[in-house]
Write a structure and sequence with these properties.
With about 110 residues, this protein is α+β, with helices and mostly antiparallel strands. It is built from three helices and five strands; from the N terminus they run αβββαβαβ. Helices cover about 25% and strands about 20% of the residues. Strands 1-3-2-5-4 form a five-stranded mixed β-sheet.
Length: about 110
């Protein structure tokens, strides 16, 4: 998990609790030649943006500032959402089985 208290309050493990009821379950899958996050399921504050998730992946994998991992983030292997898109909106439109499935990669994979 991220080191800052703000990041930890916004992104937690997937074990559901009463306070996590308003959070959205996000499944992060690696695509192509990128490091794999062993813990794939996370709960996220619904008001966070796609760019926030990209930054989280970058921090979690402890990458250098010049490495552009997760510069491509895809929803259900179909499209890349705008960086300012709200997670709640994506979940409402594209959530499946109670989760929002996101794929991260270095290079363009789909579309």
């Amino acid at each position: 998990m991220a080191d800052t208290p703000d990041s930890q309050s916004a992104l937690t493990s997937s074990t559901p609790t009463d306070k996590d009821a308003s959070k959205i379950c996000v499944l992060l899958n690696a695509t192509g030649n990128v490091p794999i996050i062993k813990k794939r399921t996370w709960t996220v504050d619904p008001n966070k943006t796609v760019s926030w998730i990209q930054k989280f992946i970058h921090k979690y994998l402890k990458l250098d500032a010049n490495e552009q991992i997760a510069s491509f983030l895809y929803v259900n292997q179909t499209f890349a959402p705008a960086p300012d898109q709200i997670i709640k909106n994506l979940y409402d439109c594209h959530g499946t089985n109670g989760k929002l499935v996101l794929y991260y990669c270095k290079n363009q994979a789909w579309g």
